[in-house]
Amino acid sequence: MSSSSINHISQPCIYGDLISSTAERKSRFMKWLSKLFKGGGSGNRGMPGGHQPQFLGEENKVWRAPARSMDDNSRTSKEKEELDRAVALSLAEDLKRPKGYKWRTDQDEDLARSLQDNSNSSSYPPYLPPYAPSYAPWEYNPDSYRKCSGCYRDIVSGNYLGCMGTFFHPECFLCRACGVPITEYEFSLSGNNTYHKTCFKEMTHPKCEVCHQFIPTNGAGLIEYRCHPFWSQKYCPSHENDTTKRCCSCERLESRNARYMSLGDGRSLCLECMESAIMDTGDCQPLYHSIRDYYEGMNMKIDQQVPMLLVERQALNDAIEGEKHGIHHMPETRGLCLSEEQTVTSILRRPRMGGRGLVGIRTHPQKLIRRCEVTAILVIYGLPRLLTGAILAHELMHAWLRLKGYRGLSPEVEEGICQVLSHMWLESEVMPASRNMPSTSTSSSSSTWSSSKKGGKSQAENKLGEFFMHQIAHDASPAYGGGFRSAYASVNKYGLRSTLDHIRLTGSFPL
Protein backbone atom coordinates (compact mmCIF):
# COMPACT_ATOMS: atom_id res chain seq x y z
CA MET A 1 0.00 0.00 0.00
CA SER A 2 1.77 3.16 -1.15
CA SER A 3 2.17 6.00 1.31
CA SER A 4 0.87 8.50 -1.24
CA SER A 5 -2.60 6.96 -1.07
CA ILE A 6 -2.85 7.11 2.72
CA ASN A 7 -4.33 10.09 4.55
CA HIS A 8 -4.72 10.58 8.27
CA ILE A 9 -7.69 12.91 8.67
CA SER A 10 -8.09 15.19 11.68
CA GLN A 11 -11.55 16.55 12.62
CA PRO A 12 -12.93 14.54 9.73
CA CYS A 13 -16.64 14.61 10.22
CA ILE A 14 -19.57 16.90 10.91
CA TYR A 15 -22.34 15.21 12.76
CA GLY A 16 -25.87 16.43 12.45
CA ASP A 17 -29.37 15.75 13.68
CA LEU A 18 -32.12 16.05 11.13
CA ILE A 19 -34.81 15.90 13.82
CA SER A 20 -33.94 16.15 17.49
CA SER A 21 -34.83 12.85 19.07
CA THR A 22 -34.76 13.84 22.75
CA ALA A 23 -37.80 14.71 24.77
CA GLU A 24 -36.04 17.75 26.19
CA ARG A 25 -35.74 19.44 22.78
CA LYS A 26 -39.35 18.70 21.90
CA SER A 27 -40.51 20.05 25.22
CA ARG A 28 -38.50 23.23 24.82
CA PHE A 29 -39.85 23.97 21.35
CA MET A 30 -43.38 23.22 22.40
CA LYS A 31 -43.02 25.73 25.20
CA TRP A 32 -41.63 28.35 22.82
CA LEU A 33 -44.42 27.90 20.30
CA SER A 34 -47.07 27.71 22.98
CA LYS A 35 -45.98 31.03 24.44
CA LEU A 36 -45.84 32.62 21.01
CA PHE A 37 -49.30 31.40 20.03
CA LYS A 38 -50.82 32.53 23.28
CA GLY A 39 -49.29 35.91 22.73
CA GLY A 40 -49.69 36.77 26.41
CA GLY A 41 -53.54 36.48 26.39
CA SER A 42 -55.97 33.75 27.36
CA GLY A 43 -57.74 33.43 23.97
CA ASN A 44 -56.71 31.72 20.75
CA ARG A 45 -55.85 34.88 18.89
CA GLY A 46 -55.02 34.57 15.21
CA MET A 47 -56.44 31.06 15.02
CA PRO A 48 -59.98 31.04 13.74
CA GLY A 49 -62.12 28.47 15.37
CA GLY A 50 -59.65 28.08 18.21
CA HIS A 51 -57.30 25.72 16.26
CA GLN A 52 -53.78 25.26 17.58
CA PRO A 53 -50.71 24.15 15.46
CA GLN A 54 -50.66 20.38 15.03
CA PHE A 55 -47.37 18.35 15.21
CA LEU A 56 -47.26 15.17 13.21
CA GLY A 57 -45.19 12.62 15.17
CA GLU A 58 -41.41 12.55 15.06
CA GLU A 59 -41.08 14.69 11.96
CA ASN A 60 -42.54 17.82 13.64
CA LYS A 61 -44.43 18.85 10.47
CA VAL A 62 -46.48 22.01 11.11
CA TRP A 63 -49.81 22.95 9.61
CA ARG A 64 -50.14 26.44 8.24
CA ALA A 65 -52.03 28.80 10.55
CA PRO A 66 -53.83 31.97 9.45
CA ALA A 67 -51.95 35.21 9.67
CA ARG A 68 -52.39 37.21 12.83
CA SER A 69 -54.18 40.52 12.82
CA MET A 70 -51.99 43.57 12.37
CA ASP A 71 -53.52 45.15 15.45
CA ASP A 72 -52.21 42.42 17.80
CA ASN A 73 -50.21 43.73 20.65
CA SER A 74 -46.47 43.22 20.34
CA ARG A 75 -44.91 40.64 22.54
CA THR A 76 -43.97 41.68 26.01
CA SER A 77 -40.36 42.13 26.94
CA LYS A 78 -40.67 39.12 29.21
CA GLU A 79 -41.55 36.87 26.25
CA LYS A 80 -38.57 38.17 24.30
CA GLU A 81 -36.28 37.47 27.24
CA GLU A 82 -37.60 33.91 27.47
CA LEU A 83 -37.06 33.41 23.76
CA ASP A 84 -33.48 34.74 23.95
CA ARG A 85 -32.82 32.48 26.91
CA ALA A 86 -34.10 29.41 25.00
CA VAL A 87 -31.85 30.17 22.03
CA ALA A 88 -28.86 30.66 24.32
CA LEU A 89 -29.55 27.32 26.01
CA SER A 90 -29.66 25.60 22.62
CA LEU A 91 -26.32 27.10 21.61
CA ALA A 92 -24.76 26.21 24.96
CA GLU A 93 -25.80 22.60 24.47
CA ASP A 94 -23.84 22.50 21.19
CA LEU A 95 -20.71 23.60 23.02
CA LYS A 96 -20.97 20.58 25.30
CA ARG A 97 -20.50 18.17 22.39
CA PRO A 98 -17.22 16.16 22.29
CA LYS A 99 -14.21 17.95 20.88
CA GLY A 100 -13.87 17.51 17.15
CA TYR A 101 -17.58 17.05 16.43
CA LYS A 102 -19.91 19.77 15.31
CA TRP A 103 -23.57 18.97 15.79
CA ARG A 104 -26.20 20.46 13.54
CA THR A 105 -29.81 20.55 14.60
CA ASP A 106 -31.20 21.64 11.29
CA GLN A 107 -34.82 22.21 12.29
CA ASP A 108 -34.14 23.18 15.89
CA GLU A 109 -31.53 25.81 15.11
CA ASP A 110 -33.28 27.17 12.03
CA LEU A 111 -36.55 27.27 13.91
CA ALA A 112 -35.01 29.21 16.78
CA ARG A 113 -33.38 31.67 14.40
CA SER A 114 -36.61 32.11 12.46
CA LEU A 115 -38.56 32.62 15.64
CA GLN A 116 -36.22 35.33 16.83
CA ASP A 117 -36.15 37.08 13.44
CA ASN A 118 -39.92 37.05 13.18
CA SER A 119 -40.36 38.25 16.75
CA ASN A 120 -38.23 41.28 15.95
CA SER A 121 -39.36 42.11 12.43
CA SER A 122 -42.75 40.68 11.68
CA SER A 123 -46.16 40.29 13.18
CA TYR A 124 -46.63 36.94 11.45
CA PRO A 125 -46.32 33.72 13.41
CA PRO A 126 -42.89 32.05 12.94
CA TYR A 127 -43.84 28.69 11.42
CA LEU A 128 -41.59 26.23 9.56
CA PRO A 129 -41.56 25.16 6.82
CA PRO A 130 -42.50 28.19 4.69
CA TYR A 131 -46.16 28.63 4.26
CA ALA A 132 -47.83 26.14 1.99
CA PRO A 133 -51.19 26.59 0.29
CA SER A 134 -53.94 27.29 2.69
CA TYR A 135 -54.17 24.68 5.48
CA ALA A 136 -52.36 22.02 3.37
CA PRO A 137 -49.72 19.87 5.01
CA TRP A 138 -46.06 20.25 3.96
CA GLU A 139 -45.51 17.68 1.23
CA TYR A 140 -42.68 15.10 1.42
CA ASN A 141 -40.10 15.57 -1.31
CA PRO A 142 -37.80 12.48 -1.71
CA ASP A 143 -35.18 14.47 -3.62
CA SER A 144 -34.56 16.67 -0.60
CA TYR A 145 -33.39 13.78 1.59
CA ARG A 146 -29.73 12.89 2.00
CA LYS A 147 -28.60 9.37 1.08
CA CYS A 148 -26.26 7.33 3.28
CA SER A 149 -23.15 6.24 1.38
CA GLY A 150 -22.85 3.19 3.63
CA CYS A 151 -26.26 1.55 3.32
CA TYR A 152 -27.55 3.68 0.39
CA ARG A 153 -30.83 4.38 2.18
CA ASP A 154 -32.35 7.80 2.83
CA ILE A 155 -31.29 9.61 5.98
CA VAL A 156 -34.81 10.51 7.10
CA SER A 157 -34.36 11.42 10.74
CA GLY A 158 -31.85 11.20 13.54
CA ASN A 159 -28.13 11.90 13.56
CA TYR A 160 -26.12 11.95 10.36
CA LEU A 161 -22.47 12.40 9.49
CA GLY A 162 -21.01 14.51 6.70
CA CYS A 163 -17.60 13.36 5.52
CA MET A 164 -15.57 13.17 2.30
CA GLY A 165 -18.23 15.10 0.42
CA THR A 166 -21.02 12.68 1.27
CA PHE A 167 -23.19 11.56 4.18
CA PHE A 168 -23.53 8.54 6.44
CA HIS A 169 -25.64 7.19 9.22
CA PRO A 170 -23.25 7.14 12.20
CA GLU A 171 -23.56 3.35 12.37
CA CYS A 172 -22.68 3.05 8.66
CA PHE A 173 -19.34 4.90 8.82
CA LEU A 174 -17.26 1.76 9.38
CA CYS A 175 -13.60 0.81 9.69
CA ARG A 176 -12.63 -1.41 6.74
CA ALA A 177 -10.36 -3.53 8.96
CA CYS A 178 -12.50 -4.32 12.02
CA GLY A 179 -16.00 -3.40 10.78
CA VAL A 180 -16.73 -1.25 13.85
CA PRO A 181 -18.15 2.30 13.40
CA ILE A 182 -15.56 5.09 13.52
CA THR A 183 -16.32 7.62 16.25
CA GLU A 184 -12.83 8.91 17.04
CA TYR A 185 -11.53 12.42 16.49
CA GLU A 186 -9.25 11.19 13.68
CA PHE A 187 -9.29 8.36 11.18
CA SER A 188 -7.08 7.03 8.37
CA LEU A 189 -8.08 7.03 4.74
CA SER A 190 -6.49 4.81 2.08
CA GLY A 191 -8.12 5.24 -1.30
CA ASN A 192 -11.84 5.13 -0.57
CA ASN A 193 -11.40 2.92 2.50
CA THR A 194 -11.66 4.32 6.01
CA TYR A 195 -9.89 2.87 9.06
CA HIS A 196 -9.47 3.51 12.75
CA LYS A 197 -5.96 4.89 13.18
CA THR A 198 -5.12 2.00 15.50
CA CYS A 199 -6.46 -0.57 13.01
CA PHE A 200 -4.52 1.01 10.16
CA LYS A 201 -1.30 0.99 12.18
CA GLU A 202 -1.87 -2.63 13.17
CA MET A 203 -2.42 -3.52 9.52
CA THR A 204 0.48 -1.62 7.90
CA HIS A 205 3.12 -0.76 10.53
CA PRO A 206 5.70 -3.59 10.76
CA LYS A 207 6.14 -5.33 14.10
CA CYS A 208 9.40 -6.65 15.44
CA GLU A 209 9.41 -10.45 15.42
CA VAL A 210 11.68 -10.48 18.46
CA CYS A 211 10.02 -8.10 20.95
CA HIS A 212 6.61 -8.06 19.17
CA GLN A 213 6.39 -4.26 19.42
CA PHE A 214 5.89 -1.79 16.58
CA ILE A 215 9.31 -1.09 15.05
CA PRO A 216 10.19 2.49 16.06
CA THR A 217 11.14 5.28 13.69
CA ASN A 218 14.69 6.54 13.46
CA GLY A 219 15.93 10.11 13.83
CA ALA A 220 14.69 10.98 10.33
CA GLY A 221 11.18 9.79 11.14
CA LEU A 222 11.53 6.64 8.97
CA ILE A 223 10.77 3.07 10.00
CA GLU A 224 14.12 1.28 10.06
CA TYR A 225 14.47 -2.44 10.69
CA ARG A 226 16.71 -5.40 9.93
CA CYS A 227 15.53 -8.36 7.86
CA HIS A 228 17.20 -11.76 7.55
CA PRO A 229 17.89 -12.41 3.83
CA PHE A 230 16.60 -16.01 3.95
CA TRP A 231 14.09 -16.24 6.80
CA SER A 232 12.74 -12.68 6.30
CA GLN A 233 12.69 -12.22 10.07
CA LYS A 234 12.09 -8.49 10.73
CA TYR A 235 13.44 -6.99 13.94
CA CYS A 236 14.48 -3.74 15.57
CA PRO A 237 18.12 -2.74 14.86
CA SER A 238 18.76 -2.56 18.61
CA HIS A 239 18.46 -6.36 18.95
CA GLU A 240 21.71 -6.83 17.06
CA ASN A 241 23.62 -5.30 19.95
CA ASP A 242 21.59 -6.25 23.00
CA THR A 243 21.45 -9.58 24.84
CA THR A 244 19.10 -11.24 22.34
CA LYS A 245 20.30 -14.77 21.51
CA ARG A 246 20.96 -15.90 17.95
CA CYS A 247 20.79 -19.54 16.88
CA CYS A 248 24.29 -20.73 15.94
CA SER A 249 22.80 -22.93 13.23
CA CYS A 250 20.03 -21.03 11.43
CA GLU A 251 21.02 -17.49 12.60
CA ARG A 252 17.47 -16.53 13.64
CA LEU A 253 17.10 -14.28 16.68
CA GLU A 254 15.29 -15.59 19.73
CA SER A 255 11.74 -14.31 20.04
CA ARG A 256 10.43 -13.16 23.43
CA ASN A 257 7.92 -16.02 23.43
CA ALA A 258 10.41 -18.67 22.24
CA ARG A 259 13.02 -20.66 24.10
CA TYR A 260 16.56 -21.25 22.86
CA MET A 261 18.82 -23.88 24.39
CA SER A 262 22.27 -22.88 25.58
CA LEU A 263 25.07 -25.24 24.52
CA GLY A 264 27.29 -24.01 27.36
CA ASP A 265 30.05 -22.56 25.18
CA GLY A 266 28.45 -19.26 24.21
CA ARG A 267 26.28 -20.82 21.50
CA SER A 268 22.50 -21.17 21.52
CA LEU A 269 20.26 -23.43 19.48
CA CYS A 270 16.63 -22.89 18.49
CA LEU A 271 14.15 -25.71 19.04
CA GLU A 272 13.82 -26.49 15.31
CA CYS A 273 17.56 -27.05 15.01
CA MET A 274 17.62 -28.89 18.33
CA GLU A 275 15.21 -31.54 17.01
CA SER A 276 17.86 -33.08 14.74
CA ALA A 277 21.01 -31.96 16.59
CA ILE A 278 23.88 -34.48 16.85
CA MET A 279 25.44 -34.35 20.30
CA ASP A 280 28.20 -36.98 20.54
CA THR A 281 30.68 -38.92 18.43
CA GLY A 282 28.70 -42.15 18.57
CA ASP A 283 25.55 -40.45 17.23
CA CYS A 284 27.54 -38.98 14.34
CA GLN A 285 29.12 -42.23 13.09
CA PRO A 286 26.17 -43.37 10.90
CA LEU A 287 26.06 -39.97 9.19
CA TYR A 288 29.82 -40.02 8.65
CA HIS A 289 29.72 -43.42 6.99
CA SER A 290 26.78 -42.47 4.78
CA ILE A 291 28.74 -39.49 3.44
CA ARG A 292 31.76 -41.71 2.76
CA ASP A 293 29.39 -43.95 0.80
CA TYR A 294 28.21 -40.87 -1.10
CA TYR A 295 31.81 -40.18 -2.15
CA GLU A 296 32.28 -43.79 -3.17
CA GLY A 297 29.14 -43.55 -5.31
CA MET A 298 30.83 -40.75 -7.26
CA ASN A 299 33.98 -42.86 -7.82
CA MET A 300 35.82 -40.84 -5.16
CA LYS A 301 36.39 -43.56 -2.58
CA ILE A 302 38.46 -42.63 0.47
CA ASP A 303 40.61 -45.68 1.15
CA GLN A 304 42.03 -44.63 4.50
CA GLN A 305 40.00 -45.08 7.69
CA VAL A 306 40.17 -41.46 8.87
CA PRO A 307 38.93 -41.05 12.46
CA MET A 308 36.03 -38.62 13.01
CA LEU A 309 35.41 -36.91 16.35
CA LEU A 310 32.70 -34.59 17.61
CA VAL A 311 34.31 -31.96 19.85
CA GLU A 312 33.46 -28.90 21.92
CA ARG A 313 34.08 -25.41 20.66
CA GLN A 314 37.21 -24.85 22.73
CA ALA A 315 38.71 -28.19 21.71
CA LEU A 316 38.22 -27.29 18.06
CA ASN A 317 39.83 -23.89 18.55
CA ASP A 318 42.79 -25.52 20.32
CA ALA A 319 43.19 -27.97 17.43
CA ILE A 320 43.17 -25.10 14.94
CA GLU A 321 45.99 -23.41 16.88
CA GLY A 322 48.09 -26.56 16.60
CA GLU A 323 47.43 -27.00 12.89
CA LYS A 324 50.22 -25.63 10.68
CA HIS A 325 48.32 -25.66 7.39
CA GLY A 326 44.95 -24.70 6.09
CA ILE A 327 42.66 -21.70 5.97
CA HIS A 328 39.71 -21.53 8.35
CA HIS A 329 36.39 -19.82 7.96
CA MET A 330 36.05 -16.85 10.26
CA PRO A 331 34.44 -15.81 12.53
CA GLU A 332 33.40 -19.39 13.34
CA THR A 333 35.17 -22.55 12.25
CA ARG A 334 32.91 -25.57 12.69
CA GLY A 335 35.05 -28.33 11.16
CA LEU A 336 38.69 -29.23 10.61
CA CYS A 337 40.62 -31.75 8.54
CA LEU A 338 43.54 -32.35 10.89
CA SER A 339 47.00 -33.14 9.53
CA GLU A 340 49.10 -32.92 12.70
CA GLU A 341 49.32 -35.34 15.60
CA GLN A 342 47.44 -33.94 18.56
CA THR A 343 45.55 -34.97 21.67
CA VAL A 344 41.93 -33.90 21.20
CA THR A 345 39.12 -33.97 23.74
CA SER A 346 36.07 -35.51 22.10
CA ILE A 347 32.50 -35.78 23.40
CA LEU A 348 31.94 -39.30 24.62
CA ARG A 349 28.37 -38.98 25.96
CA ARG A 350 25.67 -36.62 24.82
CA PRO A 351 24.51 -33.98 27.31
CA ARG A 352 20.93 -33.88 28.56
CA MET A 353 18.56 -30.95 28.74
CA GLY A 354 18.35 -29.13 32.03
CA GLY A 355 16.42 -25.88 32.38
CA ARG A 356 17.36 -23.74 29.41
CA GLY A 357 20.69 -25.40 28.77
CA LEU A 358 22.50 -28.72 28.35
CA VAL A 359 24.12 -30.42 31.32
CA GLY A 360 25.96 -33.68 32.03
CA ILE A 361 28.30 -33.61 29.02
CA ARG A 362 31.07 -36.22 29.22
CA THR A 363 34.35 -35.81 27.33
CA HIS A 364 37.32 -38.05 26.65
CA PRO A 365 40.89 -37.03 25.65
CA GLN A 366 42.16 -38.94 22.62
CA LYS A 367 45.65 -38.90 21.13
CA LEU A 368 45.53 -38.77 17.35
CA ILE A 369 48.44 -40.41 15.49
CA ARG A 370 49.16 -39.53 11.90
CA ARG A 371 49.16 -42.63 9.71
CA CYS A 372 48.63 -40.82 6.41
CA GLU A 373 48.22 -37.31 5.08
CA VAL A 374 45.09 -36.92 7.22
CA THR A 375 45.10 -37.44 10.99
CA ALA A 376 41.39 -36.94 11.79
CA ILE A 377 38.28 -34.99 10.95
CA LEU A 378 36.84 -32.83 13.73
CA VAL A 379 33.34 -31.34 13.81
CA ILE A 380 31.82 -29.13 16.48
CA TYR A 381 28.96 -30.77 18.39
CA GLY A 382 25.36 -29.62 18.80
CA LEU A 383 24.53 -28.82 15.19
CA PRO A 384 21.51 -30.24 13.30
CA ARG A 385 22.03 -33.30 11.16
CA LEU A 386 22.06 -31.55 7.78
CA LEU A 387 24.55 -28.91 8.87
CA THR A 388 26.78 -31.53 10.52
CA GLY A 389 26.64 -33.54 7.28
CA ALA A 390 27.49 -30.49 5.16
CA ILE A 391 30.57 -29.86 7.34
CA LEU A 392 31.60 -33.52 7.09
CA ALA A 393 31.21 -33.46 3.29
CA HIS A 394 33.43 -30.37 3.12
CA GLU A 395 36.15 -31.81 5.37
CA LEU A 396 36.10 -35.20 3.61
CA MET A 397 36.84 -33.39 0.34
CA HIS A 398 39.90 -31.86 2.01
CA ALA A 399 40.90 -35.38 3.03
CA TRP A 400 40.34 -36.76 -0.50
CA LEU A 401 42.45 -34.00 -2.09
CA ARG A 402 45.35 -34.61 0.31
CA LEU A 403 45.19 -38.39 -0.03
CA LYS A 404 45.14 -38.09 -3.85
CA GLY A 405 48.21 -35.86 -3.95
CA TYR A 406 46.68 -32.42 -4.72
CA ARG A 407 49.40 -30.08 -3.47
CA GLY A 408 49.90 -26.35 -3.23
CA LEU A 409 46.36 -25.32 -4.06
CA SER A 410 45.30 -21.75 -3.38
CA PRO A 411 42.63 -21.21 -0.69
CA GLU A 412 40.11 -20.13 -3.36
CA VAL A 413 40.56 -23.35 -5.33
CA GLU A 414 40.72 -25.82 -2.41
CA GLU A 415 37.98 -24.27 -0.28
CA GLY A 416 35.87 -23.59 -3.36
CA ILE A 417 35.83 -27.22 -4.57
CA CYS A 418 35.21 -28.46 -1.01
CA GLN A 419 32.19 -26.15 -0.78
CA VAL A 420 30.88 -27.55 -4.05
CA LEU A 421 30.90 -31.09 -2.58
CA SER A 422 29.15 -29.81 0.55
CA HIS A 423 26.50 -28.08 -1.56
CA MET A 424 26.04 -31.19 -3.74
CA TRP A 425 25.49 -33.43 -0.71
CA LEU A 426 22.91 -31.02 0.75
CA GLU A 427 21.13 -30.89 -2.58
CA SER A 428 20.95 -34.69 -2.70
CA GLU A 429 19.39 -34.68 0.78
CA VAL A 430 16.93 -31.84 0.33
CA MET A 431 15.99 -32.38 -3.34
CA PRO A 432 17.09 -35.92 -4.24
CA ALA A 433 14.95 -36.16 -7.38
CA SER A 434 15.35 -32.57 -8.60
CA ARG A 435 18.40 -33.07 -10.80
CA ASN A 436 21.25 -35.43 -11.66
CA MET A 437 24.54 -34.77 -9.94
CA PRO A 438 27.13 -33.19 -12.27
CA SER A 439 29.76 -35.82 -11.60
CA THR A 440 29.40 -39.38 -12.92
CA SER A 441 26.63 -41.70 -14.00
CA THR A 442 26.73 -43.52 -10.67
CA SER A 443 26.17 -40.45 -8.52
CA SER A 444 22.43 -40.34 -9.05
CA SER A 445 21.89 -43.95 -7.98
CA SER A 446 24.14 -43.41 -4.96
CA SER A 447 22.12 -40.39 -3.95
CA THR A 448 18.86 -42.34 -4.25
CA TRP A 449 20.28 -45.22 -2.22
CA SER A 450 21.54 -42.90 0.50
CA SER A 451 18.22 -41.10 0.70
CA SER A 452 16.23 -44.34 0.84
CA LYS A 453 18.21 -45.54 3.86
CA LYS A 454 16.88 -42.64 5.93
CA GLY A 455 13.36 -41.85 6.93
CA GLY A 456 11.51 -38.90 5.47
CA LYS A 457 12.60 -35.48 6.69
CA SER A 458 10.20 -32.93 8.09
CA GLN A 459 9.36 -29.75 6.22
CA ALA A 460 11.26 -27.75 8.85
CA GLU A 461 14.40 -29.86 8.32
CA ASN A 462 14.17 -29.48 4.56
CA LYS A 463 13.88 -25.72 5.02
CA LEU A 464 17.03 -25.80 7.15
CA GLY A 465 18.82 -27.67 4.36
CA GLU A 466 17.77 -24.99 1.87
CA PHE A 467 19.13 -22.36 4.25
CA PHE A 468 22.52 -24.09 4.51
CA MET A 469 22.69 -24.24 0.70
CA HIS A 470 21.81 -20.54 0.61
CA GLN A 471 24.63 -19.80 3.06
CA ILE A 472 27.16 -21.57 0.86
CA ALA A 473 25.95 -19.87 -2.33
CA HIS A 474 25.91 -16.36 -0.83
CA ASP A 475 29.05 -16.50 1.32
CA ALA A 476 30.86 -13.17 1.02
CA SER A 477 34.40 -14.37 1.79
CA PRO A 478 36.87 -14.62 -1.13
CA ALA A 479 37.93 -18.23 -0.43
CA TYR A 480 34.63 -19.83 0.61
CA GLY A 481 32.20 -17.62 -1.32
CA GLY A 482 34.16 -16.53 -4.37
CA GLY A 483 35.90 -19.90 -4.61
CA PHE A 484 32.58 -21.78 -4.47
CA ARG A 485 30.99 -19.71 -7.23
CA SER A 486 33.97 -20.24 -9.54
CA ALA A 487 34.13 -23.96 -8.78
CA TYR A 488 30.37 -24.40 -9.16
CA ALA A 489 30.40 -22.73 -12.57
CA SER A 490 33.23 -25.03 -13.73
CA VAL A 491 31.55 -28.19 -12.43
CA ASN A 492 28.27 -27.28 -14.09
CA LYS A 493 30.04 -26.63 -17.39
CA TYR A 494 32.63 -29.43 -17.52
CA GLY A 495 31.56 -31.91 -14.85
CA LEU A 496 33.22 -32.76 -11.54
CA ARG A 497 35.78 -35.25 -12.88
CA SER A 498 37.06 -32.94 -15.63
CA THR A 499 37.25 -30.04 -13.18
CA LEU A 500 39.30 -32.13 -10.71
CA ASP A 501 41.68 -33.27 -13.48
CA HIS A 502 42.19 -29.65 -14.53
CA ILE A 503 42.89 -28.63 -10.93
CA ARG A 504 45.51 -31.40 -10.61
CA LEU A 505 47.32 -30.20 -13.76
CA THR A 506 47.04 -26.42 -13.41
CA GLY A 507 46.01 -25.68 -9.84
CA SER A 508 43.08 -23.62 -11.12
CA PHE A 509 39.54 -24.02 -12.40
CA PRO A 510 38.93 -24.48 -16.14
CA LEU A 511 37.56 -21.38 -17.83
Describe it for me?
By secondary structure, the chain is an alpha+beta fold. Among the domains are: 161-204, no CATH class; 206-275, no CATH class; 276-386, no CATH class; 406-431 and 458-510. The protein is 36% helix and 16% strand. The protein contains 13 helices and 24 strands. It has a 4-stranded mixed sheet with strand order 5-2-8-9. A hairpin with a 6-residue loop joins β6 and β7 (154-155). α2 packs antiparallel against α3 (106-121) and α6 runs antiparallel to α10. The chain is elongated and about 125 Å long. The two termini are 47 Å apart. This is Protein DA1-related 2. Residues 146-206 form the LIM zinc-binding domain. Pfam families: DA1-like (PF12315), LIM (PF00412). Keywords: LIM domain, Metal-binding, Zinc. Residues 63-83, 432-458 are annotated as: Disordered.
Topology summary:
Layout: E1 6-10, E2 14-17, H1 23-38, E3 55-56, E4 61-62, H2 77-95, E5 103-105, H3 106-121, E6 146-147, E7 154-155, E8 159-163, E9 166-168, E10 186-190, E11 193-195, H4 197-204, E12 226-227, E13 234-235, E14 261-262, E15 268-269, H5 271-274, E16 277-278, H6 281-297, E17 308-311, H7 313-322, E18 335-338, E19 342-349, E20 352-354, E21 357-359, E22 362-368, E23 376-380, E24 383-384, H8 385-403, H9 411-430, H10 443-453, H11 459-473, H12 478-494, H13 496-506
Please describe the structure with a list of short key phrases separated by commas or semicolons.
3-stranded antiparallel beta sheet, 16% strand, 24 strands, 36% helix, 511 residues, alpha+beta, elongated, 4-stranded mixed beta sheet
